[in-house]
Amino acid sequence: MWKFSVRRILIMIPQLFVLSLLIFVLAKMMPGDALSGQIDPNIDPERIEELRIEMGWYDPWHEQYASWVGGVMKGDFGMSFRFKMPVTELIGQRIVNSFWLSVATLILTYLIAIPLGITSGRYNDTFRDQLITGYSYVGFATPLFIFALVMLWIFGFQLQWFPTSGSVEPGMQPGTFDYFMSKFYHLLLPALSMALITTFSTILYLRNEIIDTKQKDFILLARSKGASESRVYNQHIFRNSLLPIAAFFGFEITGLIGGSIFIENIFGYPGMGQLLIESISLRDFSVVTATTLLFGVASILGALISDIILSLVDPRIRIK
Amino acid sequence: MEANTTNVEIKTKEVIKSPSGFSVVGRELIKDKLALISLIFLIGITAFVYGTALFLDQDEIVRVDLFSIYEPPGEEFILGTDYGGRDVFGQLIIGTRNSLSIAILVTLMTGIIGILYGLISGYFGGHVDNIMMRILDFFLILPFTMIVIAFVAIVPKYGVWTFSLIMTAFLWMQIARLVRSKALAEKELDYIQAARTLGTTNFKIMFRHLLPNVSSIIIVTMTLNLAANIGLESGLSFLGFGFPESTPSLGTLLSYARNPQTLEYRWWIWVPASLMILLLMLAVNNVGTALRRAVDARQRRG
Amino acid sequence: MGFLKVEDLKVHFPIKGGLFGRTLDYVRAVDGVSFTLEKGKTYGLVGESGSGKSTTGRAIIGLNHVTSGKVYFEDKEITGETKAKSDFRKDIQMIFQDPYSSLNPKKRVIDLVAEPIRNFEKLTRKEERIRVQELLELVGLNPESILKYPHEFSGGQRQRIGIARAIALKPKLIIADEPVSALDVSVQAQVLNFMKEIQDELDLTYLFISHDLGVIKHMCDHIGIMYKGRYVEEGSAKEIFENPQHIYTKRLVAAIPDIDPRKREEMKQFRAEVNTEYEQSYNDYFNEEGLAYGLKPISDTHLVALPEKG
Known about the structure:
heterotrimer; A: 320 residues; mainly alpha; MetI-like fold; B: 302 residues; 14 helices; elongated
């Protein structure tokens, strides 16, 4: 267990390094620099040149890279020229929203997947099972953004059950119960839209896992010893099938990032995904670099967590 | 004695091996009415879209006409017009053609790269495989949408080809991993070792021996990837990071729905394109799953 | 010098482990094997599974990486040669154990048999077809069946296809790795006799690898007995079968089934004796690790692994 974890973390280091290098190169290829955010027509171009030299714009690339990484480690991503504030501060506001959206989506995903997956696996090849697999099949073939648009159209605009943009009602006092409720209310439709589509893989996985498990010898033994059907499912099968599902949540992070870019843009939800698209269209490149890096690091960490949990659950992985 | 065993052996072999190839696929398709309908639909829509597009002038369709902005469906425009007064029906045809073309192109390119990468990694094994898999793992971890958007944003000369190359650069891993694991298993079999003792070069072994034996699974995966790529392309175009507006795709039509007014009041602009994407993806998926059943005897229906 | 000469051949496989996948230890599959083959003869390599006999054969032809030692073929070193177009590839061929997995299931007979021909010779389609049909006829298959797939043949027939392919380039040496052990007993003798026939016809030399002493007795002029990667005894067929010196060899020879039912009791008793002797004198014949000692000559051709003290 420890050996595997240490080795897995060691593998992560080159991954993080290559990611940072990739994003550094991306950032260098983007037009403009940290100063273009503060360019004031009144400042003398020569003074800007001096500032650039001072800030190391003409240093060799590895020195620039080192100082960039150093800054990032300290949480310094530079200035956003559009919002005229440090990128770190800007991201700080958005990342909280994205975090809650992801948490809500994950909770809903599992709330939908677990009962459906268990029903489907327990009563496989019945009408109920066919309904559920049919649903996951359609979910598999439906792009998230189309589904989200339809959800917004029906529940947001036609039925007007949910707000159609933002993360909170304007003018609410932070900290109050109403503020919290409003946040929750804004979160619900985007999270539900994402969960309803992404849940299909978990349903199918759980279904197959249960169908596999219920034919194993130890289940047959439990049955032959006279354990009731519900006991067999609750005590034995469920416990065996659920752990791998739990382990996948790290991998879900990569999916959530991709999904949140669409969801946040469709529902006008001020999170990281919306910030990324916004800052690209405004050519606010220091923000683009920072969001890309954070998303990338989140994915790498997610894969790490999943791998380690999986190695706990399934010893075979450790041997590899 | 010899003749006797021969007969028995041929019989058992027949159960496992034959009927092979197309007859199985054909039978599977006929058994699976949904897949058959899907296939007919796909052939029909492809023929219609590519055929009609020959008579449509793309420049004519994407030209802004300020006198007919947001016309609802009617006599003149079957599916109305968009914010630039452009015919939605024409854009739908051209868009479907463009979306299909790029999805096919990307699927083929990712297929070729994935097959090469997987074959080399799996066949040579050892350190080569180790390093190649580390690289692949890294690509696999990157969030696809984000990284493609970042690349699209900085590419100076942006066009259909650059777009498909960027998509390909981050989509080849699935096929590569699949081919690699198949190749790893297959190369241990004696027929590969035998080929080496017969003086067959590594290159020939990879392409003449290994590849034909993993081809069926590649075809299935590439079919399913085609469906996924239609979705990915339209999603990126929807966000504004796919096709340029001068070359509309289905996603371009959907992107007009990012304007709440359009989403709420002008359904004719985005609903047909959504339906088209859904139908295409479902149809391709249906065909893909039927193929998978044909290839994988355990899932076969009959 | 000999026709094929193997000098102190070692094939070790690393065991990886630990934090960084370092090499912790080695499996010594082949651990210092030397022997010489004479042209036109059949040399038998015998041992249980895991004794390293197959690995030896595969290392000679370049399928396994050689850790150390040398292999000479007609006085030219060919150790660890992996290039596909090396000269010796035409001269040394291999027959594989499993006639099911050694033929690519997606290829027709003509492509299977013509594969080596295409690699080394430039023939027209027609010439190639005639050659393949001749070869099929030579191995006793219907020349009409060139368009069939391997799964349409029985095990014995498939092994004949394998042989046809191995002799297509008119090789000098054939390494036969358990060529009949996957076949029905009824078919085994046919294939073995056929191999003997073509040996005379084509002037072949065989390196015959098998765990079946009965088959070895039938086929071989010289025999080497392997145990845990090392030789325990080497000699002519007569010496090995009539005068086995090493206790391990004795036990193997005693285990050969006798068809004569009248001798059944006698054999049973004999085996029990040998077994007792084996258990009692095990420590005299093997070192502390249970491995064989170095070979000592007891006659011109007969070598036995005995400890220094003699």
